[in-house]
Amino acid sequence: MNSAIENATCANVSRRSFLKGAAAAAVGIAAVDGGFEFVYPENAFADENAPEVTKHTYCDMCNHTPKCGITATVKEDKIVRVVSRANYPNDPLCAKGLSSLQELYDPHRLLHPMKRTKPKGQGDAGWEQITWDEAYDTIVAALNKVKDEMGPEGVFFYCGDPKEPRGAVNRLANLFGSPTYGNESSTCAYAALIGTGLVFGAQTMGANPTDNSKSCLIWSLNPAWSLPNRFGKLMNAKEKGCKFIIVDPRVTPTVTGLADIHLQLRPGTDGALALGIAHVMLRDGYFDEEFCQNWTHGFDEFKEYVQEFTPEKVAEITWVPAEKIEAAAKLWGEETPGTFITSASPQVHHTNAGNNMRAISSLVALAGNVDVAGGLQIDPGLPFDLFAATPAFNREDIYDAQLATKRYDLEDFPVWTKFVKQMQTNRFPEYVDEGKIKAMVMFGGNAMMWPQSHLYQEAIGKLDFACAADYYIRPWTHDYVDIILPAAMCYERMAPFAVFGRKIYLREPVIEPRGEAREDWQVAMELGSRLGYAEECFNGSVEEALAEVLRTTELGVTMQDLRDNPDGYAVPGGAPYEPKKYETGKIRKDGQPGFNTPSGKIELVSEVMKECGFEGLPLYNEPVYSPISTPDLAKDYPLILNTGSRVPMYSHSKLRDCPWLNQFMPEPIVRLHPKTAAERGLEDGEQVRVFNQLGEIEVKLEVTNLVLPGVVDIFHGWEKANVNKLTAREFDHVTGYPPFKSGLCQVERA
Ligand SMILES: Nc1nc2c(c(=O)[nH]1)N[C@H]1C(S)=C(S)[C@@H](COP(=O)(O)OP(=O)(O)OC[C@H]3O[C@@H](n4cnc5c(=O)[nH]c(N)nc54)[C@H](O)[C@@H]3O)O[C@H]1N2
Ligand SMILES: Nc1nc2c(c(=O)[nH]1)N[C@H]1C(S)=C(S)[C@@H](COP(=O)(O)OP(=O)(O)OC[C@H]3O[C@@H](n4cnc5c(=O)[nH]c(N)nc54)[C@H](O)[C@@H]3O)O[C@H]1N2
Ligand code: SF4
Ligand SMILES: [Mo]
Hints:
Layout: H1 3-9, H2 15-26, E1 31-33, E2 36-38, E3 52-58, E4 69-75, E5 78-84, H3 95-98, H4 100-104, E6 114-115, E7 128-129, H5 132-150, E8 155-159, H6 166-176, E9 181-183, H7 190-200, E10 215-219, H8 223-226, H9 228-239, E11 243-247, H10 253-258, E12 261-263, H11 270-284, H12 289-295, E13 296-297, H13 299-306, H14 311-318, H15 322-334, E14 338-342, H16 353-366, H17 396-403, H18 414-419, H19 428-433, E15 439-443, H20 454-462, E16 465-470, H21 475-478, E17 483-486, E18 498-500, E19 503-505, H22 520-533, H23 542-553, H24 559-564, E20 569-570, H25 581-584, E21 602-603, H26 607-611, H27 631-636, E22 639-643, H28 659-662, E23 669-672, H29 674-679, E24 687-691, E25 696-703, E26 711-714, E27 743-749
Parallel strand pairs: 8-9, 8-15, 10-11, 10-14, 11-12, 13-21, 15-16, 16-17, 22-26, 23-25
Antiparallel strand pairs: 1-2, 3-4, 4-5, 6-7, 6-17, 18-19, 19-20, 22-27, 23-26, 24-25, 24-27
Helix pairs in contact: 1-9, 5-22, 6-22, 7-16, 11-14, 11-15, 11-16, 14-15
Bound molecules: ligand MGD (2 copies), iron/sulfur cluster and molybdenum atom (MO).
Family: Belongs to the prokaryotic molybdopterin-containing oxidoreductase family.
Domain 4Fe-4S Mo/W bis-MGD-type: 52-106
Keywords: Iron, Iron-sulfur, Metal-binding, Oxidoreductase, Signal
């Protein structure tokens, strides 16, 4: 392993104690470390002399699509050891992946369907074990009742951050006839995809540098902690000479490992910073004039607008020194081709999300970095996303013909509805209060992820019926549902496929599910069958559902092809990347030259925005609460509240009970710069109150140079200190996103 990656990945991880734990797992004994005692339940022990079998799967500990490969050693249907899978596109396993056995064999895991016997939200649901049959019968009766009384749209189908159930749940919602399907991407990736979709006519979060890339603009991503397998690839590009500009308020291991220029901005001022860089590029000729004149829409208007964003003015807004803005514009404009990478979330966790993302995307066009080798390659790629299944499998035909006009968010978020065939979920409490939603089917979600999250918790409680599938009973959310179903984990399930470019991997279960757990796809398909769609839901068969996913790709790939190629089946065909396809008509759906936007060009001024009643330019607006937009509020709450930047050892609300991971951050902390702490007479390690006009939490203080002076950095998802008590429910009009990362607050000794 590249030692730089190892160091960065494990930056917050005490290697000695972690490895001690890992060794304990290998022999299947209890791990006792740093005050934590973890005892595997009986069924984690195998006969020492039993033969060993090696099997492969991929990890889902960060619920995400890095899909790191795992090789598991199995004895008597018990996993005794896991390591990174060799010759697999994504490796190595991070601390979470290596700890996944503790989640799998956790004695507190939910292993049977349960129903509540006591009233909601009172701390004790009186959970009582029931059979799958009883669970399904109850759910089917409740959903059909809502369907009969008010129509299928009254049932809200929801997937949280776990991405794996999505294809099956989407299909189920469409078959049931409900456009009220949504997922956690209402606060995650879609705003970035909408922003880039508006500009490029292609939804993208950028691409890693290739050997042709002279530069790379990373706009708010910290893969050293959030996507460790990707960080290794970026380190390799750095070694080959690619120059990096990184826009991040914090000094992360990604910044120290990669950045040639680090722009440490005030959170939420991303749009102003991008317009300032554009100003310098256009002023000093660091742009591709021919490309801009021929292939961008609204160039002159955009050029006129950025006149006011002088480096000096932008420095005042963003806190980034003017010289650095100048230097970044020069590097980005001169070191071409260059690629750009943006995150799913931090740059859009603001009330100006959509326009921030459009302004950032404009920089790629100005530099002429679109659809060139080493730049942002706009590639039609394979006609499917096997991870979230395919449009045909998801039954978008039903959605388009019958459901699209019945969705509840049409008036709230018109731009969103043009791009996303799923509901923007952030106004869920209002839809419940307005009587539009009466029941909820939840796969892997936590109400704590929303801003002012108690309102979402209460909204679930107000429903006639709610059920959830999860690995655990998480009281914060599940105290408000009626039935809870045990979900099988990555070692126990088959769906979905892993796809890397043209290579597809089938995942065979490594072990039988513990207890009565069932995989999400099976649950969705069994529920669908009982709701009257047995044929469409393959009578609950995951094998057949997956075969149908393959069939809908129309690529001629079969399950047998995948079984015959356990090291990945390469879909035949495909050609090397072809640059400048916009000139030859290979990007647009109608075969004409140009891009898939209304004007056929890269839209610096957006026609879709205008059609939806907004300004066409990516106007910069201050975050709704900020020292500039609400100076009076800022007198009481002078610090910028930046919540949810990822930590290496946890995924959102998960893994707090995993002993090997919990030891690295046993309790919620707030991070402050030494200067900010000193101004308040605060010292490292003491308990502090973090509060604003919306709420208050108590956490332990960590004083660190990682954060920018004047900014407060707190991770989300802690039940005992839920920072979403302090985040506001003003939503960006374009994307519906909340200001998770640009609130205001104050910190005092507790
Ligand atoms: N303040 C603040 N809030 C944020 C963010 C932030 O940065 N700041 N980030 C936002 C973002 S980007 C996201 S993605 C969301 C994430 O928020 P959530 O979607 O709530 O994610 P988790 O906390 O991981 O909750 C997932 C639940 O699913 C369960 N689970 C995990 N895997 C599976 C599975 O495969 N099947 C089933 N059935 N259950 C499973 C877990 O046990 C857990 O209870 O949070 C958002 N909220
Ligand atoms: N370990 C771990 N990995 C994860 C997750 C997890 O919970 N834990 N969650 C997964 C999910 S759902 C997601 S969405 C991704 C997110 O992946 P990342 O975006 O990489 O994660 P973050 O740490 O939220 O944000 C990256 C950087 O953005 C900076 N940032 C904060 N505010 C701003 C801002 O206003 N502007 C700019 N330009 N930068 C800002 C932060 O300082 C941080 O260093 O991570 C995924 N990977
Ligand atoms: S980054 Fe870590 S948690 Fe995420 S898939 Fe890879 S090993 Fe698992
Ligand atoms: Mo996310």
